[in-house]
Amino acid sequence: MTLDALLTAAPPWPRRVVCLTEETVETLYLLGAGDRVVGVSGFVVRPPEARRKPRVSSFLDANFERILELRPDLVLGFSDLQADIGRELCKRGVPVHLFNQRSVSEILQSIRLTGALVGLAEEADALATRLGAALARHADAASSLARRPRMFFEEWHEPLISGIRWCSELLELAGGVDVCAESRASQGAKGRIFTPEEVARRDPEGVVASWCGRKAKPEKIRARPGWATVRAVVDDQLYEIKSSVILQPGPAALTEGVDQLARIVAAVARGERLGRPREGDLRSAA
Predict the structure, then answer these.
(1) 56: helix, coil or strand?
(2) Model pTM?
(3) Are residues 48 and 187 in the same domain?
C-alpha cells in the first residue's frame, strides 16, 4: 500500500455520526454539519428536521445492529447511564465519545469539543462564545431585579428531585435563589431527592417543574404534604418548562431554556404572573 493510500484510507474527520442524545445533534446542526448525522435518539426533537434521521436508540437502550448498518465513524453519547451502550459499541469496533457535562461551563466545553471532533473547532468556539455572551446578558438583566426570589426547580415529582447542576446554575444566573442549591453538587439524581415537607419548609416563592418526558401537573404539586401554605402555591407561581428545552445539556438549555427561566424569575420577583394557564396545566413562559 502506498503512503497516499495509507493517509487517505479514512477521512480526516468523521463524516457519519450517530448521536445517542439530543444536545450533540443540535450542536452539529448549528455548526452546519447536520448532513453528517446519520442516526439519532428516538427522543430527539431539536431541530425538527433531525427527526427524519433513522432512530437508533432510546436513552438507556440502543439497536446495535441498526447502528452498525449506518457505518458510523463516530458515536456520541452522554453520561455514565450510557456507559454500557458505549462499551458494547467499542467492542464492536465503533469509535465512541461519551460526554458527561453537568455544569454550564462544561456544557460550553462540550460544544467546543463536539466541533473539534468533526474538524469544526473554530466554528464551535464561535458558537460557544455567542452562547456565553447571551448568558452574560441574562446575568446583567438579573442584577437589575429589585430582589432575588426563592425558587425551586423540580426535575421529577415522585420522588421529589431538585434540578441538575446546570438547571440550578441557570436559575441563579437568571436572578433566583435556588432553595436546594446544595444538592447540585451531586453527580446523580439520588443525591438530589428531597421530601415534600423539606422543600415546603424552605418556602419557595416560585416553582419551575420540568418532569423528564412527562407533563407536569399543578394538582400534584398543590396536594403535597405541607404545601398548602407554600408561598409559590398561595401566589399561584407554579410554572412548567418542557424537558426538551431545559434538561438537555446543550444549546437548548443555554438559549430557550434560560430565556424562559429569566421570564419566570422576573415575574416572581415583581409579584406578577405570566400568562393564564389552561385548565389542568401549569403556567408557561414559552
Answers:
(1) strand
(2) 0.93
(3) no
